[in-house]
Amino acid sequence: MPPPSLVQVALHTPSHSGVGDLLSYASERPLPPGTLVRVPLGTREVLGVVWDAEDATGELPEGASLRAIAGVLEGVAPLDLPWRRLVAFAARYYQRGLGEVALAALPPQLRDLRPEQLARRLRRPAKATDESANAIQNIALTAEQESARARIAAEKGPFLLFGSTGSGKTEVYLRCVQEMLEADATAQALVMVPEINLTPQLEERFVSRFAPRFGAGAVVSLHSGMTNPQRLKSWLAAHSGAARIVLGTRMAVFASLPGLRLIVVDEEHDPSYKQQEGARYSARDLAIWRGREQGAKVLLGSATPSLESWHASRPPPPKTRWAAATCACTCPAALALAPWPACAGWT
Ligand SMILES: Nc1ncnc2c1ncn2[C@@H]1O[C@H](COP(=O)(O)OP(=O)(O)OP(=O)(O)O)[C@@H](O)[C@H]1O
């Protein structure tokens, strides 16, 4: 019988315990990073994520004795490297525990269900979807919308789409999402809104546009107003790639999306994108970081952009310390798109 392997597992351990959030366990077989496992912690059994450990030898040292993992969440593919890098960056940047951020990013029911309960849940047949692949009936874009769409398609971004209320920003998002999904059968899009109560109307618009083309299960929501079983279902659909579009609030920035190609942050100026407890992250800023890391385009939209996004989308200032200001009232165009220069300082 081969010797047990040593795996490093990210756990949400109490910060006062000082045990750190990467703990070693023994496993009967080597487990790839990102695998979801249940492990003993004190007298409890908790969910953990097998993590990349640079100093792990893969084998137990002579004479060492480690507690064994209790079980693997079979049927759930390991969380991929871009997701683990996002979590590691967020934990470092916002100075929280790695395990705390990793576990908070997973649906609560994943933590509560035992492996066999989850296996039963995964065996339930998914509802049949009408994959009729009907062509989408697009409305003609205005000149401003078309110019924004073409620029987003051609350039790398991130982009700031600045347009007053009702100027047609959502129509641009819809068209960009459509192009991205039609070009690549595995592509996924993440569309974020600041408030839970904005998701039903956006969901209705996305479902009516995309369900006939990509099937009823192609659009899912992720926000804290959903029940735990609903959140788990949406999360699994996103993680498996079955969901092509995820609509959600700030927490959705941590969704596992292996095919992520486009992130839209609507009302990007809204303070609700800032988490106010635990890891105090800014979902908009993490979206920009994630997009760059995962090679996904990022599109921020607002009628009243935040000062930082507005500044980041301006051409670099001249060498003088202060730019001269004029007071002529020049109202912005109805819809303007500004590519965001490289985000220096985000490492
Ligand atoms: N090119 C177009 N042709 C006809 N109708 C359009 C066009 N673009 C958008 N509309 C319609 O105009 C209305 C407002 O558009 P949209 O919701 O995209 O604007 P918005 O800038 O996202 O608004 P908000 O700031 O309120 O989110 C919608 O009913 C939409 O269907």
Binned, the helix content reads 25-40%
Q: Which cofactor or ligand species appear?
A: adenosine-5'-triphosphate
The largest sheet is: 7 strands, mixed
Strand proportion = 15-25%
Counting helices, strands and paired strands, the structural category is alpha/beta
**CATH fold name of the largest domain:** Rossmann fold
Compute the separation of the termini in Å: 44 Å
Question: How many discrete structural domains?
Answer: 2
Mean pLDDT: 85
Poorly predicted ranges: 329-333, 342-347
CATH architecture verdict of the largest domain: 3-Layer(aba) Sandwich
Q: Spatial order of the strands in the main sheet?
A: 8-9-7-10-11-6-12
Our Rg estimate from Cα atoms comes to: 22 Å
Protein name: DNA 3'-5' helicase
EC number: 5.6.2.4
Enzyme class: isomerase
Keywords: ATP-binding, DNA replication, DNA-binding, Helicase, Hydrolase, Isomerase, Metal-binding, Nucleotide-binding, Primosome, Zinc
Notes on the protein architecture:
Strands 8-9-7-10-11-6-12 form a seven-stranded mixed sheet, with helices on both faces. Strands 2-1-4-3-5 form a five-stranded antiparallel sheet. The protein is built from ten helices and twelve strands. Helix 8 (228-240) links the parallel strand 8 and strand 9. The protein is globular. By secondary structure, the protein is of the alpha/beta class. The chain is 31% helix and 18% strand. The chain has two domains: 5-123, 3-Layer(aba) Sandwich (GIY-YIG endonuclease), CATH 3.40.1440; 143-318 and 326-339, Rossmann fold (3-Layer(aba) Sandwich). The chain has helices at 81-93, 98-104, 108-112, 115-123, 143-154, 169-183, 199-214, 228-240, 283-294, 307-312, and strands spanning 5-10, 22-27, 36-41, 44-50, 71-72, 159-163, 188-192, 219-222, 245-248, 260-266, 297-302, 335-339. Adenosine-5'-triphosphate is lined by residues 139-142, 145, 163, 165-171, 303. One of its GO terms (cellular component) is primosome complex. One of its GO terms (biological process) is double-strand break repair. Residues 150-312 form the Helicase ATP-binding domain. It catalyses: ATP + H2O = ADP + phosphate + H(+). Pfam families: DEAD, PriA_3primeBD.
